[in-house]
Amino acid sequence: MSNNYWEDVYQSKQVDQLSWYQQQDQKTLEMIRSQNLSTDAKLIDVGSGASLLIDQLIEAGYKNIHVLDLSEAALKVMRERLSEKVVDISQIHWQVADICTVALEHKHYDLWHDRAVFHFMVTEQQQEQYLKNVRHALKENGLLMISTFAEDGPTQCSGLPVERYSVEKLAQRLGENFRLIYDDTEIHTTPWNSKQNFLNTLWRFYK
Fold it and tell me: Mutual orientation of helices 124-137 and 167-174 as an angle, nearest 10°?
């Protein structure tokens, strides 16, 4: 995956015409709240794109939000949208980078959120690079919230191949440092009314 590919995606389509678009992500917000994190907790949203989840997190009072994406165009859309809402975006830390190669601070984050990025890691090398960064950047007892296509989900997204997961397969890939807290499956409806089966999981990280 190159950043040029995703720049083209976000420059050629309206955000609400992308397959992963959600007008609200109430379930994720409720899952985060269920863990009783302080509003000062450090949250990183990997592959943020132009996600409206960030708006919801700010509205819920979270003050230390990190957004990371390959596409500068996607983050520009988010910045402009938040500015129009007269939101103080100084509480957001912006980063354009590849999550597999970016240098993140050690033991820095209380929660790592990923909706539909990890399943684009289709080689063992990509998966290990990604997980190495997770293990490096999460605090002890930190939370990993990760959503992928389920085993009966699509085999491709935006023309790219994806890896599909069951809870058991994902647990095996994450390794023994992660303990499952919660999982469910949901059907995501795209803007053109096709159905995609997702697996949602929440894990606790132990060194």
Answer: 70
Residues 6+ apart with CB under 8 A from 191: 16, 17, 18, 19, 21
- Per-residue pLDDT tens digits for 26-59: 889 999 999 999 999 999 999 988 888 999 999 9
Dihedral sign from CA coordinates of 177, 180, 181, 187: positive
Give the ranges where the chain is alpha helix by DSSP (H).
3-12, 26-34, 53-59, 72-84, 124-137, 167-174
Burial of 86 (0-12, 13-18, 19+ CB in 10 A): exposed
* Packing angle, helices 72-84 and 3-12, rounded to 10: 40
Residues 101, 109: Cα–Cα separation, whole Å: 17
- Rounded CA-CA distance 95/21 in Å is 21
Could you give the CA distance from residue 192 to residue 165 in angstroms, rounded to a whole number?
24
Q: Please compute Rg for the chain using Cα positions.
A: 16
Residue whose C-alpha is closest to residue 100's, from 55, 134, 71: 134
Give tens-digit pLDDT for 93-115.
999 999 999 999 999 999 999 99
Backbone angles phi, psi at 173, to 5 degrees: -75, -35
